[in-house]
Specification:
Blueprint lengths: L2 E6 L8 H14 L3 E6 H4 L18 H12 L2 E7 L7 H8 L9 E8 L5 H13 L3 E10 L5 E2 L2 E2 L3 H25 L1
Parallel strand pairs: 1-2, 1-3, 3-4, 4-5
Antiparallel strand pairs: 6-7
């Protein structure tokens, strides 16, 4: 069974990312993955406050140690990312930067959302950071334009296209997680 860490990349009050992430979580669980749902608003990581570079893994803060353990246990990562000013959120960047080795050799998918570009500029901006951390992007992006229009009573209702593309991403995450397992050993 693939253990997939889903990271909610927005901490903004009233965010549309949480209902989108709940839809993603439900689909990933229905596909048979074990899910670890990391809401960065609840995780509440401070801005990088470790005295040593993450590459040394000399963590001193309980929040960093706990975050490290969660990421270490994941076989795959799925980011639910808003687009802010043609990029992704500072909370997501901070969560990624807290660690280094724990990300390596894991497949990652991005469910991006936003306005005109459907969040794809955020997904593209993430590429350099993800590859530097040793994550391996699956070749499928879910891009949601105007997500608020798909939310009623706090529930995101996906289109058939969103569902189909997310299904392909979940399947890719499982296949890549298995293929990359020797790199993580």
């Amino acid at each position: 069974m693939t253990r997939t860490l889903i990271i909610v990349g927005s901490v903004r009050p009233g965010r549309v990312g949480l209902p989108v992430a709940h839809w993603v979580r439900d689909r990933v669980a229905a596909a048979g993955h074990e899910v670890d749902f990391a809401d960065l608003a609840e995780l509440n990581l401070p801005f990088m406050d470790e005295p040593e570079h993450p590459g040394k893994r000399a963590y001193t803060k309980p929040h960093t140690i706990a975050w490290s353990e969660r990421v270490e246990q994941a076989d795959a990562v799925l980011l639910v990312s808003p687009e802010y000013n043609h990029s992704y959120s500072p909370a997501l960047k901070n969560a990624l930067d807290f660690l280094m080795h724990e990300w390596q050799g894991k497949p990652v998918g991005v469910v991006a959302y936003g306005g005109a570009s459907s969040g794809l500029r955020a997904a593209a901006a993430l590429d350099q950071v993800l590859t530097t951390l040793g994550l391996v992007r699956v070749p499928v992006d879910v891009a949601i334009s105007g997500p608020a229009a798909h939310i009623a009573d706090g529930v995101f209702t996906a289109t058939e296209k969103h569902d189909a593309v997310l299904g392909r991403m979940i399947e890719s995450l499982g296949r890549y997680a298995e293929a990359l397992r020797p790199l993580r050993a």
